[in-house]
Design brief:
The complex is a heterodimer of chains A (738) and B (245). Chain A has 19 helices and 38 strands. Chain A has 738 residues and is α/β, with parallel strands linked by helices. In chain A, the strands form 9 sheets. Chain A has a 9-stranded mixed sheet, with helices on both faces. In chain A, a hairpin with a 4-residue loop joins β32 and β33. Chain A starts with a strand and ends with a helix. Chain B is an alpha/beta fold and 245 residues long. Chain B is built from 6 helices and 7 strands, in the order αβαββαβαβββαα. Chain B has a 7-stranded mixed sheet. In chain B, α5 crosses α6. The chains are: A alpha/beta (738), B alpha/beta (245). The interface between A and B is large, with 41 and 31 residues.
Chain lengths: 738, 245
């Protein structure tokens, strides 16, 4: 034990206080106090004094450290990030690392009496057994080498003898570099890095996805857009993209040579004469010299070419609702509309209605876009968030945004539940769900139509051009779902009457464009009462729903179509879109002023530009965005009415494959900081050289620093000190000492 | 001896008793108020909430709607046992009541012959035309009611008569799959009968004491008509059919 704060000037203090205590005891004795009492108090105060003195002198335990005796552990880190799946080492890099660890490193370390703690790491690090390492997926999206090193070096009371890292050296997450350096230096742990992969790295070209409309009419041109990604460094030679239709060659395209990693788009234009379901497969044909590899060489899309004479609506409800019955009655009289029902009638049973063949809703709620393809509109009623998984909500988002489907949500406070807030469904709908459970119970009311609704074709239900007279016959309702408000770009069709027109108007019916489709919210439960009411005409209710479904399903084509040109899809550079104004029947439309807008997904306007557009003169517009993400491109006319919209997704190159060559330089830097070593994996033929290195490293560390641990400052010491003082105080009170 | 200022003993006792009485009165009043509120809620007309199942119990002709008293509540409970649909208690109303047009599912039963007035027929016609559904049951296999029902419903829509629903009709398999229903006291099968309007089934009757079977376990109709098990399955099928067609 060593006393760090014990100095020479303490001596008078150490000697003076006992003397003062003895003088005090002597005085007490002469004051006639009983001997046992002052002896006890003297003992208590002396004890407290000694303990205080000991704490003030900062005692520490000092013990010499021996690496040979205590540091018997090797931390073995194996990289399982995606770049380790690259196939350039007689198999993948990961497999090569596992082989080296299993066949050479671990036996060598264990024969030298060292224990091996193995870890797998990518975005994070975790301990792993041998079988876990052998069976692990190599799919980490980032390589947090620094975080893994820091954690391995800091683990345990005794530092590891060394941290051995098997990796390709491509650390894509550098945020924890300082922490790793600190851990290596403070705990004096050498890093041994073994680099896997080739120094040039493979070049890779892949087909990311094929985007196509799910349904087109015969004899109308449509586009198949192919997203491609090139990663790696060096030259990418020219290659070829082929389009197969139902297995037969349909079209081909040459991809020109390039020299840099990128994501870009290529487009095939297709026209089908005959109705049917067509499967389009886009395949990448690479040069035969294997200078470029392709982890994903093909992708497919299915398109229904149909001149169908009816639309199908899917009505999904968490429990049976009267809305289903009455809306179904409404569409019965329209031969062009068919409605299929999917209802949860109990926790473990579902009810299907108008499911005419096995291919329709085979497993309940559709799980793919192909299963949703037969439907033009999906109605959601009486659903709670637990009824629709996030993946199913995302499917509806894609159904609406990418394929042009319509989504309608109808119900009251139970349906427009706050639990949907921030969900994919909320992203899709034109309203925001209200925080807190605000369920409206109000005096009887009739929905107040907005001027937009009065003019809208959906509301022309009576044939006399006065929708207001019809809606005045809607029975008075007593419930509505209160939402927080509508999103910018949404069109409100009906409001709560006494709030209508004001800034805080409460929307009851709202609709918006979402990507290629439309979404609507009808925040009124029991709208079916309109049809049943004595004074109503059922045909008005029926027409409303028929026209709403036609509108939601995209019966009206946008006047302006927005195409993305074939180009690199990157942030921070100009992107080109082509705007195409549709003719009105056979008549050309003269040029007029429009505005082209770019919005983020949360509907923040990013840029806007004026453009003159006529049906005979498509125009190119340029725009750019700074960050990766999904953006909405919009065209509005001079009155601000939406004329066309589409979404575009911009994303970073897959960072793990962006620079796939081995980065030994980074490993050498790490090794240099910690007096370790970095080698190419193929240079590590004999692991005993690593053991020799460790031995040499131990020798270089002499003289070793003794290890110190604080002594004395402990809760029991403090408790004892306080106990002495408290006992002294209590006894003096008891014995009536003043 | 009393201390100065302290009330006399009998007065003190009186105050104590008074305080206790006040407390007890307060408790009784509170309990009474709570009970009144609760009773009031039970008696209040059913709210037409989203996704709820309830039915209107018809008073018609000279019938006061009291045959098989608990049938509305029992039918709603039946629905709740097998589904997630929230239920509410029945509401009694006449065919001439304007509130008829806010309740999409009606039930009527009885033992005897009856005749609907012109106003009742007009309202029923409009109700069924607008999407409403009528479920009827003869009580205790008494033949008077079904005969009258067939006759009166045949007057609702010109050219439409009540007809037997064969077992391949969806109403027999919309929830439970019912392949046949045996009559408990006769060697024959029981069929539902219905009235169609523009191809849509708008009213259904079972003459063999269906309400006695699903509501009273046939205690009022022992050994007759439909068995309680079949009765519950049929009644539930009718309710689900009404909500989906």
């Amino acid at each position: 034990v060593k006393y760090l704060a014990l100095e020479l000037w303490w001596m008078p203090l150490v000697a003076g206080i006992p003397v003062a205590l003895l003088l005090w005891a002597f005085a007490r004795r002469h004051a006639g106090r009983p001997r046992p009492q002052w002896l006890v108090l003297l003992g208590l105060r002396g004890g407290a004094f000694l303990m205080l003195l000991m704490l003030l002198s900062r005692p520490v335990w000092v013990s010499p450290e021996s690496f040979d005796e205590e540091r018997r552990r090797i931390a073995l880190l194996i990289d399982r990030s995606e770049s380790m799946s690259l196939d350039d080492m007689d198999g993948s890099r990961y497999r090569a690392a596992v082989r080296l660890a299993r066949d050479r490193l671990v036996p060598a370390f264990e024969s030298a009496g060292l224990e091996v703690d193995a870890y797998l790491f990518a975005e994070s690090i975790r301990p792993a057994t041998g079988s876990e390492i052998a069976e692990s997926a190599v799919d980490g999206k980032r390589t947090n080498l620094a975080g893994a090193v820091a954690q391995a070096a800091s683990s345990g009371g005794t530092p590891p003898r060394a941290v051995v890292v098997l990796t390709d050296g491509n650390a894509t997450d550098p945020e924890e570099n300082q922490r790793a350096i600190t851990a290596l230096l403070q705990r004096r742990v050498p890093l041994i890095g073994l680099g896997f992969g080739s120094d040039t790295g493979p070049r890779m070209l892949s087909v990311e996805e094929v985007l196509a409309p799910t349904r087109v009419p015969p004899r109308q041109e449509f586009r198949l857009s192919v997203r491609l990604q090139a990663t790696g460094s060096g030259e990418f030679p020219a290659s070829e993209l082929v389009l197969l239709r139902n297995g037969q060659l349909h079209d081909r395209k040459v991809l020109t040579a390039s020299t840099e990693p990128r994501i870009w788009q290529e487009t095939f234009r297709v026209v089908e004469e005959l109705p049917g379901r067509y499967q389009y497969r886009v395949q990448l044909l690479l040069p035969p010299d294997r200078s470029v590899r392709s982890p994903r060489a093909e992708s497919t899309a299915t398109v229904d070419v149909t001149d169908e004479d009816h639309w199908r609506v899917l009505f999904v409800q968490g429990g049976l609702t009267w809305d289903f019955k009455f809306i179904q009655l409404a569409v019965r009289s329209d031969p062009a509309l068919r409605m299929s029902g999917l209802s949860r009638t109990a926790s473990d049973s579902r009810f299907f209605q108008n499911v005419e063949h096995d291919e329709l809703l085979p497993g309940g709620f559709p799980s793919t876009l192909e299963e949703l393809a037969p439907f033009r509109v999906v109605v959601l009623a009486n659903l709670r968030p637990s009824d629709l998984r996030p993946a199913q909500q995302e499917l509806l988002v894609r159904f609406c945004g990418e394929t042009g489907g319509g989504v309608v949500m109808i119900g009251g406070g139970e349906t427009f539940n706050v639990a949907w807030r921030d969900s994919p469904l909320e992203r899709l709908l034109p309203v925001r769900f209200a925080l807190g459970r605000r369920r409206g119970t109000v005096p009887p009311f009739q929905p107040q139509l907005t001027p937009e609704a009065v003019q809208h074709p959906v509301f022309q239900v009576s044939g006399d051009g006065d929708p207001l007279s019809v809606w005045r016959n809607v029975p008075r309702l007593t419930e509505f779902a209160e939402v927080e408000g509508t999103k910018s770009g949404a069109e409100v069709w009906a409001e709560l009457p006494w709030t209508s027109g004001g800034r805080d108007a409460i929307p009851l019916i709202a609709v918006q464009r979402f990507g290629l489709g439309r979404s609507a919210a009808i925040c009124i439960p029991n709208l079916w009462r309109w049809r049943l009411d004595k004074d109503s005409q059922p045909r008005h209710y029926d027409r409303f729903w028929q026209q709403l479904f036609r509108f939601m399903g995209g019966g009206e084509q946008d006047p302006v179509t927005i195409h993305l040109a074939d180009q690199n899809l990157v942030t921070g550079q100009d992107l080109v879109a082509t705007l195409d104004l549709r003719r009105l029947g056979e008549q050309p439309v003269p040029p007029a002023r429009f505005r082209f807008q770019v919005e983020s997904l949360d509907q923040q306007s990013l840029s806007e530009q004026a453009v003159e557009l006529g049906s005979e003169q498509p125009r190119e517009v340029r725009f750019r965005v700074a960050e990766p993400g999904t953006y909405t491109l919009r065209v509005v006319n001079s009155a601000g009415t939406l004329q066309g919209t589409r979404t575009v997704e911009l994303k970073d190159l897959e960072i793990e494959f962006a620079l796939p060559e081995r980065n030994l330089g980074a490993l050498r830097q790490w090794a240099g900081i910690s007096s370790g070593i970095a080698l190419a994996a193929e240079a590590c033929r004999d692991p005993t050289q690593l053991l020799e290195l460790l031995q040499q490293w131990d020798t270089n560390q002499v003289p070793q620093q003794p290890r110190r641990q604080p002594a004395g400052i402990h809760w029991s010491t403090l408790l004892l000190l306080l106990g002495c003082l408290a006992a002294d105080w209590g006894l003096r009170k008891r014995w009536n000492w003043t | 001896m009393n201390f100065q200022g302290e009330p006399p003993m009998n007065m003190k006792h009186g105050m104590l008793v008074g305080a206790r009485l006040c407390t007890i009165s307060l408790l009784i009043a509170t309990a009474g108020w709570l009970g009144t509120v609760a009773w009031g809620q039970l008696q209040a007309p059913p709210e037409v909430n989203e996704a709820s199942f309830f039915m209107g119990r018809l008073r018609y002709s000279k019938n006061d709607g009291n045959d098989c008293v608990g049938v509305g509540r029992n039918m709603a409970q039946l629905v709740s046992q097998v589904s997630t649909v929230p239920i509410r208690d029945e509401r009694r109303l006449a065919l001439t009541d304007p509130e008829l047009f806010s309740i999409p599912f009606l039930f009527m039963n009885g033992h005897h012959d009856f005749v609907l007035s012109t106003e009742e027929l007009d309202n029923l016609r409009q109700y069924l035309d607008h999407g409403g559904f009528l479920f009827a049951s003869g009580c205790c296999t008494n033949p008077g009611f079904p005969v009258a029902w067939r006759r009166e419903l045949g007057r609702v829509f010109a050219g439409e008569q009540v007809q037997i629903l064969p077992y391949d009709h969806p109403i027999y398999r919309v929830f439970y799959s019912v392949s046949s229903i045996r009559n408990l006291h006769e060697n024959r099968e029981i069929f539902l009968e219905g009235l169609f309007h523009e191809g849509r089934l708008v009213a259904v009757i079972c003459e063999d004491g269906l309400c006695c079977a699903f509501s009273m376990d046939n205690r009022c109709n022992v050994g007759h008509g439909v068995s309680p098990e079949d009765g519950k399955r049929l009644a539930l099928n009718i309710a689900v059919y009404a909500m989906t067609h």
